[in-house]
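[Discussion] Sanity-checking designs against the backbone

I'm trying to build intuition for which residues belong where. Below is a structure token string of 312 positions. I'd appreciate it if someone posts a full sequence so I can compare it with mine line by line.
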């Protein structure tokens, strides 16, 4: 397991928020939500002292504390992180949001990013505890697919195991917006902006079998199968995506392996093809595909075509 401190303080991003290290000059903005170990600060000096305590805990390897920045405006909306050290590859998740930014989805996105980061560090369990009268927090954890494992007179405990992070299911038309958002999260590193309209056309007109990896209340990955190539003897896997903050957790490999097994159920199919880019060539090579064709700048400038095949 990898523990803090890190060579570079981890920064996590999504379309909506950025999780980043807090600065000392931001304590005024955080005064209304400055808590640590159940203690509430009342002055800027106390808030700064508390932030310094948190930073010391980070250096001890016991805490990662992020400010939640609204990506569009740069406003500091709240804080979240992992606290109270590691025990049995577990970490406790905590969060608080400034009142003017509540009920806008910022915390849901932030905890999603933090949880994925924790699992990539090697955690096998993330848990959170809240008052059972804090209906907003209970709803938040439930919406993130955390399991309620313990209820006491005043508190409720939720957990999510690494092995239960996501499940794969068939795509539904109601998933369209989330799949398009998944593409945007991979643009421009893996997709050109012009490809969004192509994906939309695919989802509306060309889907034969398409699958999503659903977890933390959203879609973390997706990929499809199309048939009918080379006289029905070849199938193609298409539009593969995993959210950047969740890459490295095996989602892409699981989605690809599942589709290969699905294709192999048809005895008439002898070949599986993928038309991808140079950016993803290594991934498919490791999955057993071999490059058979290359065309530079095929999809867009800087996005080459790599046709890769697997015989079955």
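Best answer:
Here's mine. Compare freely.
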């Amino acid at each position: 397991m990898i523990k803090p401190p890190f060579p570079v303080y981890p920064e996590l991003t999504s379309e909506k928020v950025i999780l980043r290290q807090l600065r000392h000059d931001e304590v005024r903005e955080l005064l209304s939500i400055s808590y640590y170990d159940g203690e509430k600060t009342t002055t800027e000096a106390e808030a700064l002292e508390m932030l310094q305590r948190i930073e010391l805990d980070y250096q001890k390897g016991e805490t990662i504390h992020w400010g939640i920045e609204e990506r569009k405006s740069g406003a500091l909306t709240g804080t979240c992180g992992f606290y109270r050290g590691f025990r049995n590859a577990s970490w406790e998740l905590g969060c608080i949001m400034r009142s003017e930014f509540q009920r806008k989805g910022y915390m849901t996105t932030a905890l999603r990013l933090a949880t994925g980061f924790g699992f990539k560090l090697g955690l096998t369990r993330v848990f959170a505890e809240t008052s059972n009268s804090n209906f907003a927090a209970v709803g938040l954890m439930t919406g993130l697919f955390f399991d309620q494992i313990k209820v006491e007179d005043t508190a409720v405990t939720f957990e999510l195991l690494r092995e239960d992070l996501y499940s794969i299911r068939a795509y539904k038309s109601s998933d369209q917006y989330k799949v398009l958002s998944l593409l945007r999260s991979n643009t421009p590193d893996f997709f050109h902006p012009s490809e969004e309209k192509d994906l939309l056309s695919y989802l509306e007109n060309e889907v034969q079998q398409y699958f999503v990896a659903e977890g933390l209340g959203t879609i973390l990955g997706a990929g499809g199968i199309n048939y009918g190539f080379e006289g029905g003897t070849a199938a193609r896997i298409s539009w593969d995506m995993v959210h950047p903050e969740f890459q490295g957790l095996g989602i892409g490999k699981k989605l690809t392996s599942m589709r290969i097994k699905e294709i192999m159920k048809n005895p008439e199919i002898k070949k599986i093809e993928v038309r991808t880019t140079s950016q993803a060539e290594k991934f498919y090579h490791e999955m057993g595909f071999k490059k058979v064709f290359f065309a530079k700048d095929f999809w867009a400038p800087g996005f080459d075509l790599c046709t890769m095949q697997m015989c079955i």
